[in-house]
From TrEMBL:
Protein family (similarity comment): Belongs to the 3-oxoacid CoA-transferase subunit A family.
Protein name as catalogued: CoA transferase subunit A
Entries under InterPro entries matching the protein: 3-oxoacid_CoA-transf_A, CoA_trans_fam_I, CoA_transf_BS, NagB/RpiA_transferase-like
UniProt organism field: Kineococcus endophyticus
Gene3D superfamilies documented for this protein: Glutaconate Coenzyme A-transferase (3.40.1080.10)
Keyword terms of this UniProt record: Transferase
GO MF annotation list: transferase activity
Highest taxon of source: Bacteria
Length: 237
């Protein structure tokens, strides 16, 4: 059984330490566990390795850990909209391992499934292949990629029950189910936590509670990264 706790700081108390590897759900600013990331910032831990699709934007999401100089290495798919991330990478101040997005997803899934490595054609003949073992299958060259097992997973869910079962909402699902299984400790922030005795229907469970260590309810505002609107068209009478 997972534990429902009162605050992000309480959920991470005794868990965080300098130099740990943290896998974080989200894509851009969608499905990001903002309250838990803020709690990591406030804890002051340093020397972190962050595994995430990207590092948020300046001043939002994982960008706050960069601004507070708490991150030394990043495994991510792209620099995205974070100007500080790009500048620190180009200046050589940040160790960055770029991982193709599908490969990153599969490395997290493999880590959670106990698979130490797998082969993929993605990245063959590019800088992604440097220093990696290769093998040939059916006349095609493949790269060996290692599964990722982090020390801690930070997850955002739409709904959790008190057994730790999780349901995600639409595209906020993104990397969260993969991240949740890829670490021995998974801390979840949920927008809604069901009352005692209520449980998600089995067909609605996206991540089973066996993977979840603790849950905290949060009503933190979730910013929109890109807002696109068009003028309302006049309707003829």
């Amino acid at each position: 059984m997972s534990t429902v706790l009162g605050s992000p700081a309480q959920a991470l108390a005794g868990v965080l330490r300098d130099g740990m590897t943290i896998a974080v759900g989200g894509f851009g600013l969608c499905g990001v566990p903002f309250a838990l990331v803020d709690a990591v910032r406030d804890s002051g831990v340093r020397g972190l390795t962050i595994v995430s699709n990207n590092m948020g934007v300046d001043g939002q999401g994982l960008g706050v850990l960069l601004e507070n100089d708490q991150v030394t290495k990043v495994l991510a798919s792209y620099v995205g909209e974070n100007k500080l991330f790009a500048r620190r990478f180009l200046d050589g101040d940040l160790d960055v391992e770029f991982v193709p997005q599908g490969t990153l997803a599969e490395r997290l899934r493999a880590g959670g499934a106990g698979i130490p490595a797998f082969y993929t054609p993605t990245g063959v003949g590019t800088p992604v292949a440097e220093g990696k073992a290769t093998a040939e299958f059916d006349g095609r060259t493949y790269l060996q990629e290692r599964g990722i097992v982090a020390d801690l997973a930070l997850v955002h869910a739409a709904t959790a029950d008190r057994a730790g079962n999780l349901r995600y909402r639409l595209t906020a699902r993104n990397f969260n189910p993969l991240v949740a299984t890829a670490a021995p400790v998974a801390v979840v922030e949920a927008e809604h936590v069901l009352d005692e005795g209520e449980f998600l229907h089995p067909d609605d469970v996206h991540t089973p509670g066996v993977f979840v260590t603790s849950v905290v309810r949060t009503d933190r505002d979730r910013p929109v990264e890109q807002r696109t609107v068009r003028p309302r068209e006049e309707v003829g009478v």
